[in-house]
């Protein structure tokens, strides 16, 4: 039986967001235990020209929402990028998860060969549904999730691969 686009996207996103939310909780607890300002973590960057932790959460959310919206022809809920705190980042994840859980798997059925046009930075990229998921969505999503993990790890938060992968 082939793997569905729903399983490749929504199922994977839900798992990653659960793990990411738990990692953020550990980051917040670490800042409190160490007497550090939470902003020292939420505004952390791996390097000056990379976006901070807050933006990594926002981009992971946008990527997940955008994938099912484009594939399923759904309305895209607008989440303004205003998160600054750990609680706000977790709330963003919760809103994204609620949206994803409301997606009917049938909305993504048979979209493997559907044309998906992505407009980014003045360019227009055209994919099949399958190629969009495998070659753009999943790498982009996991880039932001991994970067969020790496930012917290770089700041000394005691997290490891098991936290990133979550319960197996």
UniProtKB/TrEMBL annotation:
The transmembrane segments are none
Q: State the superkingdom.
A: Bacteria
Gene3D superfamilies named among the record's database cross-references: dinb family like domain
Q: Which Pfam families match?
A: DUF1993
Stored InterPro entries:
DinB/YfiT-like, DUF1993
Write down what this protein is called. DUF1993 domain-containing protein
């Amino acid at each position: 039986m082939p793997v569905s686009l729903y399983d490749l996207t929504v199922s994977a996103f839900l798992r990653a967001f659960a793990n990411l939310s738990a990692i953020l909780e550990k980051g917040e607890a670490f800042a409190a235990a160490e007497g550090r300002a939470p902003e020292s973590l939420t505004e952390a960057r791996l390097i000056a020209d990379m976006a901070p932790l807050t933006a990594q959460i926002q981009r992971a959310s946008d990527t997940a929402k955008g994938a099912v919206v484009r594939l399923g022809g759904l309305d895209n809920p607008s989440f303004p990028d205003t998160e600054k705190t750990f609680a706000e980042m977790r709330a963003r994840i919760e809103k994204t998860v609620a949206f994803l859980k409301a997606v009917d798997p049938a909305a993504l059925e048979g979209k493997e060969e559907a044309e998906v046009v992505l407009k980014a930075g003045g360019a227009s990229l055209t994919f099949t549904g399958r190629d969009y998921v495998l070659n753009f969505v999943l790498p982009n999503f996991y880039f932001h999730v991994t970067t969020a993990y790496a930012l917290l790890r770089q700041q000394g938060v005691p997290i490891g691969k098991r936290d990133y992968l979550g319960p197996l």
